[in-house]
Amino acid sequence: MNQSLFMAQAISLAQRAKGKTCPNPCVGAVITAGDEIIGQGYHQAYGQSHAEVEAITDARTTGCDLSQCTLYVTLEPCNHTGKTPPCTKAILEAGIKNVVIGTKDPNENVSGGGAAFLSQSGVHVTCGIEEQKCLDLIADFNTWQKTSRAYLYLKMASTLDGRIATRSGHSQWVTSDISRKSVHELRSKVGAVIVGGNTFYQDNPRLNCRTADFQKQPLAIIVTSKLPSPDSDFYLIRERAQETIFWTDQKISESKQAQRLKDIGCEVTGLNKTLSGLDLEQGLTLLRQKKNIYYALCEGGGKLSLSFLEAKLADEIWHFIAMKILGDNQAIPVFQGRTPQTMDKSFDLRLSESKTMGNDLLLKLFPKIATVN
Known about the structure:
The chain is α/β, with parallel strands linked by helices.
């Protein structure tokens, strides 16, 4: 039996619900009889049946003896009653004797409890199959467990030589239609899209989702020390004022210009200052605590992206690379603002996944333990 293959299918199922289960993790499960999958399911939305129950329900339609089957699940089954009964109970009632778990629950209050309970009840339990991929799957849940802030996706799109625009600021388009469609699909899963002031003033962005399946437009957030006039012709001011938030410092947030923006429906939020700039973690915390937003997406520019990396707030990085070369040292780089003298001062990232997007390459990355001082 190929345990990794079955777990990969469970991971694929779980990914279908990314963004729909918060504050719970997304989880997938399959049930096998020998080398054949006879049942599968995933946790589709918060409050609905968990993946194990979905897979058991699906497997029962085949009439197979589940006591002779194996359950593969990306995350340790719960052993407590929440919105739904404990999945360990459902597994025992189904008669399943063999359970393969991708990773244990990161919640310190319950970690290992489900696996231990199943083992004590006579079930053979195996843990750690495709563990890193299963951990990546619940990186958002892990962030929510350990912090009070929203989970942050950091998205970049650059040429092969690491440029996001020409020296004049022209950037339409760096990547392909397929890549841009993928970005809009990501926007459909988040509650806020964040850009820096330079991107706002140069690109006049919409920061909205233009796919058919979005349920609610994400908020537009601009991080800037220079507030625009409420009479300006920027799209966000003209068309999305009530969905637009400016993050700036406390003094500017109390200015007359800020009040004028508030009068047309914008929000202007004053953040505390740190040694490197605004307290971006405070902003992400306010999104979760005040707006009930669990996912945010930063789309640049280079200085803001670097600020999130430096603050250890970039939870998951999506880097789209176009097979194009500008070859201009004065073109705008994907990251900017640091002057490291040695390579050991670089940010160390871990590649989780790579895939082609038409003629582009998408790298999905996670930060390693920071080595930057």
